[in-house]
Amino acid sequence: MTALQVSVWRGGADGRLQAFEVPRYPSQTVLDVVTHIQRKIDPSLAYRYACRVGMCGSCAMTVNGVPRWTCRTHVDRVAKDGTLELRPLRNLPIVRDLVADMRTFFDKWERARGHFEGGATRADDFARVAPESPARQAADAGIECIGCGVCYAACDVVRWNPDYLGPAALNRAWTLITDVRDTKTAERLRAIAGDAGCHACHTHTSCTERCPMHLSPTASIAGLKRAVTKAALEGKL
After folding, report:
1. Where exactly does CATH 3.10.20.30 map onto the chain?
2. How many other C-beta atoms can be found within 10 angstroms of the C-beta atom of residue 86?
3. The pTM is what?
4. Which residues contact 125 (CB under 8 A, 6 or more apart)?
5. How many CB atoms lie within 10 A of CB 230?
6. What is the pLDDT of residues 73-131, one digit of tens each?
7. CATH number of 103-233
8. E strands within 11-130?
9. Domain spanning 3-100: which CATH class is it, in words?
10. Number of H helices, E strands in the chain
């Protein structure tokens, strides 16, 4: 049986890489490798996962320099000369080892007013939105985001400007702005129009390239730029 040489980040922001040797198996995922280390070699290794089948996104880490879901990343695809380097997600504080602190990520969702605010009450009938309407199709293109943070870790603008809201928060804002049931479009546009908002995006498309759900935050951010410009010209901001 061949062995895999794995370097794993240990400690906090001032930590270091630690080397491990892990048996290599057919169809082995990166999450399998981390689990083997924690269960068979070093039980103190901290990492995060839940579903193991690509539904929750909590197992996201940086694998050989690229943010990925480790449960859906096969070793055969990413191992370079039989080696792996595993680090926590970039652009986020490190809790310990492979665990990143996601609070900054979700705080930015709130700053972008990433929660639905409708005008209906329980006494009202259900809203009926035509699936073929342009607004509904625009919203549909971005609603499958599960908040894994891969796009945020891949974003160079976040690295340069820590205040930047990031692709996930802006994508969420776009899905709400294009939802005809939401009543806070003006407030949301003001929230994402500043220096740390949609116009800070450099359109590198790293978020779109890395999104495990095959979404395009780049397209959503472009839509926000158009919406903000239109609202500004109309004197609504």
Report:
1. 3-100
2. 23
3. 0.94
4. none
5. 12
6. 999 999 988 999 999 999 999 999 999 999 999 999 999 999 999 989 889 998 888 89
7. 1.10.1060.10
8. 16-23, 60-63, 66-69, 83-87, 94-96, 99-100
9. alpha beta
10. 10, 7
